Amino acid sequence: MLYIACVLMGWLNVYAAVYSPETQTNLFDMSTNAGKQLMWIGTTVLLIIAILVINYRFWDTFAFVIYGITILMLLLVLVAGSNIKGSRSWFKIGGFLLQPAEFAKLGTALALARYIDFPNVNLTKLKDQLWCAGIIALPALLIIASNETGSMLVFASFIIMLYREGLPGIYPLIAIVIVTLFILTLIVPKLILFGVILALAVLVFFLTPRYQRSVQNVLVIGITAVSMIAIVAGVDFFVNSVLQKHQQNRIKVLINPAADPLGAGWNVTQAKIAIGSGRLQGKGFLEGTQTKLDFVPEQSTDFIFCTIGEEHGFVGSAIVVSLFVFLLCRLVLLAEKQRTRFARVYGYSLAGIIFFHLMINIGMTIGLMPVIGIPLPFFSYGGSSLWSFSILLFIFLKLDSRRVGMFTR
Amino acid sequence: MIENRKYIVIGVFCLVGLVYLSRLFYLQILDDSYSLESSSNSIKRVIEIPHRGQIYDRNGKFMVYNTPVYDLYVTPKKVQIPDTAAFCHLLNLERTEFDSIMAAAKAYSYQKPSLFLRQLSKEDFARIQDALVDYRGFEHVTSSMRTYPAHTMANALGYVSEVSKKQLEEQETPYYRQGDYIGRSGLEEQYESVLRGQRGIKFVMQNVHGVVKGSWKNGAFDSLAIAGKNLYTGIDAEIQQYADTLMQNKVGSVVAIEPSTGQILCMVSAPTYDPNSLSSRFFSKSYSKLAKNPYKPLINRPVMASYRPGSTFKLIQALVALQDGAVSPGSIFSHAGSPMKCHCNRSGRLNLSGAVQYSCNPYFYHVFRRLLYNNAERNTFKASAMGLHHWHDMVAKFGIGQRLGIDLPSELKGSLPDAELYDKLYGERHWKFSTVYSLSIGEGELLISPLKMANVAAIVANRGWFYTPHIVSGIGKPGQGIDPKYLEKHDVGIDPQHFEVVAEGMQGAVEHGTTTMAANIPGITICGKTGTSQNKKGKDHSIFVAFAPRENPKIAIAVFVENAGWGGIAAASVASLVIEKYIKRRVDNHALDKKVKEANYLPAIVPPQKPAPKKFIEPPKDSVAKPMIVKTILQRSVPPVPAEAPSLASRPVTTNGN
Can you tell me where the transmembrane regions are (chain A) (predicted)? Predict the structure, then answer.
């Protein structure tokens, strides 16, 4: 239709092109996967056409309906889903598996956009913050219930969008502080950490100009320090008592991969070996030994990036990472251009989700993130994820095309 | 303000992207440890063991070949055994054995197959193959096992077993790996590098479970296995087997050489064992049983045992004395002047041939005396030293006191004393002929292996030359590829005419002399010489060396029978039967054949004492003082038959004196 849409389509084609050979690689071991993936691609094209045909108003109007349907699916899967690898989060339809959690992202993004689009919503107000949190938390909790913690974490990505829409900066800051403390707790002995926090509090107190040392400010400093200590203590409890065994291991492995290279550290170690062995040029298409021969687990889904790293080397993996970053920036800039708040919020949500997937998925294969089983957008094998990302992206394109269309008309 | 947040968001995206790129840069470009690990991870070297070379006898009969056997492997993860008791019964296993094998397999890997049972024979495997269908997780791999169809010559052939830890550590170029087979003695050890062939290496890609997924780079780096070469030997399996039966219930050796080629015709070490017993999966059980046997059946006596040659050494003494000019064929010496006793009753009537024929001790006392003093030196001490030196050099040419260089490992040098030895023992110029005269009749500090004695017989048969005795006559193809040193003629430096004198005496010894009846085979002119090897620790050893026929000899032979008593009778009987069998391909003298087979010279085993002494290192200074009177053995006491030996009542052996 229009220039920008074409560019975006071009991007997609690049992904599709890179994408299908990647699955071809896995033909060696699971020929059915590639076959199925072709079918998924076919159906995805149909979906895309459908999305482009449907009036943009549809998404705006039925946002909450779609949200409701996804919530219903999440509930249903808890009852009627098939149990695969310990999580009850799949529908078995014929020979194929469908994961409603993937579509929950779409529903949530639409619902959030619709909510924030209400004219009087202000994200600096606690009531609206709570509403948003509720919209996000509902599917997230349902997903936790179905034992798919990885997908749940994706919902944290909405914070990026909320931040852009006026959420006070303190929230992401708190999030960052918590994550930092979390990591520090695992590395640094607790008592030292306590000491450092207290020292920081005292330091901040004395650095505060005397005239600003109101009771209120001192209280803020004190509460911050106490809550930080509480977080540190809480993290310890959380890691050792709340998390399941395999989750505990994954976090410990991140800190020290060499501790158990054949056990919990296996995935990460093998993934790093595969990527590391690619060197600059890679081993060449279909020449990967690590990934082809099952050393890397889940190499067609969650660890797909290993195949890129091994067979195409630094050049290939750098291109992929850059492409994603370029896409993300492009999405953000496009979102900024949207006339409607709905479209902008939705665009940011989309960027946030893709960013989060990218960060976690690639991060875990190169040992920077704990192993969390979420797919790499457009690359990983799996119909649900391909569908949901394509739908997510093309709804935004449709929204965007309307804007451009209006413009040219 | 809020509008600017898009830059923060974009900034975060780019920052994460940059962090990841630098991490990738580090992993893929800077740090090469991951790349190294990957190749050892997924590419596996698979060793292809080539067929080990087979061994043939001189008539093209198999001595050793490979039998296909089945190694049973188990993959613990896949194991399904409905009834363990029935399974153990099927495989002839104790439950405890089964448990320990399974435990070891599980400890190794659940995913990868480990060895469950080694070397199941074709028959065993056929028996269990059908039943094995009911049990999951077991698979078989064909391998091969050494098989010895002639059931003979175990000591010279050697055996094959797993390479030892020490060998693994000491190998110069790392070839063997844990669990590889290697030749451990005899020909298997000597020709290991030829027999084993060249191992092939295949690079295959394997997945995480060690399951092979095809060849790597289409086999560009693979090397094919090269089969081991066959060995063609000069052994006559039939003769070897026959000599085996003659040597049953005896300790000793039979070595026969084809004089014209130096090829060994048979090499018996008694007692022996069935080589097949060390080639099955019961190897360790059989081996420890053999190692504990007091008669030491694992020793290859023809090359690893040394004896005083006794009277058989007179052949060499006669030859070197003639060559030296110390005596002439017609020289006559009486018993007078010699401290040695004799039983020939022909004092002063014997020429050199006669002395050989009747094995006259005093005669050779005089011969040796002449030999040592056959120089210009007037001082008897100096003359003895000079004479002995000269004598040593001449005798050494017969291969005495050195390794002949047969193609077997662990050949012993034996001992040939020289002047330096006596200088050391007695002090320079403190010894002379009268100190060392026991050498004249093959006693004293002489130690000779049966192989060397057989070679001496071959030298006499050839009238002055020999090829280094060897078993293998062809590597890869018959008559090809052997070490050129076995094709090199060695001259012993004695004029051919002198040999006729000795041969005359040897023929006489068989026909009229010391061994009449025992060694005389109608229709074949056998030239032989008896000997007694004195043995302080028990009964003397019986020795006989011979060749036949006198003209154009076909076979030279040495037989040693330990503890068979004085005189060469026991040995001569064995030798003559072997000669008859070899030349006529049949044995007519059934009575002798029966008598020899039934004779039992196994020494009694007294636990703390060494049962069968084979080496006499300590030089007996009083060897001459020993009585050498005629001993007619009328009745042998029945020695206790050890549990390992078949029970065989010993029969009285009579000698007809000599």
Answer: 40-58, 65-84, 130-161, 173-206, 218-239, 314-333, 345-372, 378-399
Q: Kindly state whether residues A256 and A397 are assigned to the same domain.
A: yes
**pLDDT (tens digit per residue) in A174-213:** 877 777 777 777 666 777 777 888 888 888 777 777 777 7
* Candidates A276, A329, A351; nearest CB to B28: A276
Mean pLDDT of chain A: 72
- Tell me the shortest Cα–Cα distance from B106 to chain A, in angstroms: 17
Q: B252 and B571 in contact (C-beta within 8 Å)?
A: yes
Is there a contact between B28 and A314 if contact means CB atoms under 8 Å apart? yes
Give the N- to C-terminal CA distance of chain B in Å, as an integer: 132
Tell me which residue of B561, B614, B5 sits closest to B268, measured CA to CA.
B561
Q: How far is CA B432 from the centre of its chain?
A: 38
| Residue A212 shares a structural domain with residue A285 | no
Rounded distance between C-alpha atoms, residue B507 and residue B105, angstroms: 67
Range of the domain at A300: 3-168+243-408
Query: Which residue in A160, A279, A293 is closest to B35 by CB distance?
Result: A279
Is the same domain home to A402 and A255?
Answer: yes
Of A189, A219, A242, which marks where a domain is finished? A242
**Per-residue confidence (pLDDT) for residue A391, from 0 to 100:** 80
Q: How many angstroms away from the CA of A174 is the closest CA of chain B? A: 16
Q: Contacts of residue B9 in chain A, CB cutoff 8 Å? A: 160, 163-164, 332, 348, 351
Positions of E strands within B370-454: none
- Judge if A119 and A69 occupy the same domain: yes
d(CA B513, CA B567): 12
Distance from CA of B25 to the nearest CA of A (A): 7
Residue B261: what are its φ and ψ, rounded to 5°? -125, -20
B77 versus B369: the higher-pLDDT residue is B369
Tell me: pLDDT of B142 over 90.
no
Q: Are residues A225 and A96 in the same domain?
A: no
Asked if A275 lies within 8 A of B34 by C-beta distance, the reply is: yes
Q: How many CB pairs under 8 A join A and B?
A: 130
Per the DSSP assignment, residues forming a β-bridge with B77 are: none
Q: How many domains does chain A have?
A: 2
Assess whether A193 and A145 both reside in one domain: no
Q: How far is CA A371 from CA A151, A253, A361, B380, in A?
A: 12, 9, 8, 99
Which chain B residue shows the shortest CA-CA distance from A316?
B24
Q: In terms of pLDDT, which residue wins out, A377 or A108?
A: A108
B204 touches chain A (CB under 8 A): no
Please report the ipTM that was assigned to this predicted complex.
0.76
| C-beta neighbour count of A9 within 10 angstroms | 14
pLDDT-based confidence at residue B260 (cuts at 50, 70, 90): very high
Q: Do A295 and B41 touch (CB under 8 A)?
A: yes
pLDDT attached to residue B101: 83
Domain end call among A242, A268, A301 = A242
A195/A253 same-domain check: no
Cβ separation A289–B37 shorter than 8 A: no
Tell me how close the Cα of B404 comes to any Cα of chain A, in angstroms.
57
Residues of A in contact with B208 (CB under 8 A): 270, 293-295
Distance to chain B for A74, nearest Cα, Å = 30
